[in-house]
Specification:
The protein is α/β, with parallel strands linked by helices and about 300 residues long. It is built from nine helices and 13 strands.
Length: about 300
């Protein structure tokens, strides 16, 4: 079985047409047909059901297609790994992220350092919502995604926890509870709430926390980013429950941030680094593996820096 045979099989499987597949692969149709017949002979199975107008995958072909894609990915990763050892790493690093990453990791700075080390690697970044990013991971469109762990379907994904934070209550400075040491969820149950849209993992976690406490709230505003949410709270439209750590480094003189007091142990907000689970012994994309190593180095640096700061 040759790599070229597998490439031609995938082209025919995706095009569902031998002529178009041959054009895509820059080969004459007779050459493509011969390569696929030889592959079928070697596998001892018919991979396509042929007709005069188009071809369809047989049951064996459908079973073989994901394996064929994994074989090609493995070959590509092996080539890139060798290139990395030889000092010429190439390939693509595709990342997903959400807006809440900013207070924790300086992603642009990390990517700048990565590009300095590996200038021939193409870098792609997509900011989006949880399920869209999770689906992109499963489909192989992105290698890694930084996003909250709440509200993400874990099927086919693995996650490495990076940061966690307790929840806090944000109120305007003239609010009746401003100045309190802590605030219970019951104390704000009848307030108007400023929330994220249901597409955000933070919203899923806040909904879960209120459900655990058995407290009902009314969402008056559903927003898509932290800055706008904080502005609505500061101008007195409602209160919000947010991860305390997302407020770090923000100059918010018009907000009071109060720790949430609850009757039950509650889950904290967590931010993780997600990737698709590898099939078998399939190696990870070398640029992605190297970037993960950079992230872990940065986490160690941040931990040490915070430890020093806490002793000053």
């Amino acid at each position: 079985m040759e790599v070229r045979q597998i490439e031609l099989f995938i082209a025919a499987a995706e095009e569902r047409h031998f002529t178009r597949a041959a054009q895509r692969a820059n080969i004459v149709q007779s050459g493509l047909s011969t390569a696929i017949r030889n592959l079928e002979d070697e596998l001892g199975a018919t991979l396509f059901v042929r007709s005069t107008r188009r071809v369809e995958l047989s049951e064996a072909g459908r079973a073989f297609l994901p394996e064929a894609r994994q074989i090609l990915a493995s070959v590509s990763n092996a080539r890139q790994a060798i290139a990395a050892i030889q000092g010429g790493l190439r390939g693509r690093l595709a990342l997903g992220t959400v807006q809440s990453l900013g207070p924790f990791l300086d992603l642009p700075k990390l990517l700048q350092d990565f590009r300095t080390r590996y200038p021939d690697v193409e870098i792609l970044v997509r900011e989006g919502h949880l399920e869209g990013l999770a689906q992109a991971l499963r489909q192989g469109d992105i290698d890694l995604s930084f996003m909250p762990t709440a509200g993400v379907g874990r099927s086919g994904l693995s996650v490495e926890l990076l940061f966690s934070s307790p929840l806090a209550v944000a109120v305007p400075p003239d609010h009746r509870l401003a100045g309190e040491r802590t605030v219970s969820l019951e104390a704000i149950a009848h307030e108007a709430f400023v929330d994220f849209s249901p597409r955000w993992g933070t919203r899923a976690l806040v909904d879960q926390v209120f459900a655990i406490e058995g407290v009902h709230r009314s969402t008056a505003f559903e927003l898509e980013n932290f800055e706008l949410l904080y502005q609505f709270v500061a101008r007195g439209f409602g209160v919000a429950v947010v991860p305390a750590a997302t407020l770090a480094g923000r100059n918010l003189p018009h907000l009071q941030i109060l720790p949430a007091r609850t009757a039950h142990p509650l889950p904290e907000w967590e931010l993780g680094m997600f990737e698709a689970k590898a099939a078998g012994d399939l190696p990870s994309n070398p640029p992605a593996a190297l970037f993960k190593a950079m992230i872990r180095e940065e986490l160690i640096r941040l931990h040490l820096a915070r430890g020093v700061a806490s002793r000053i």
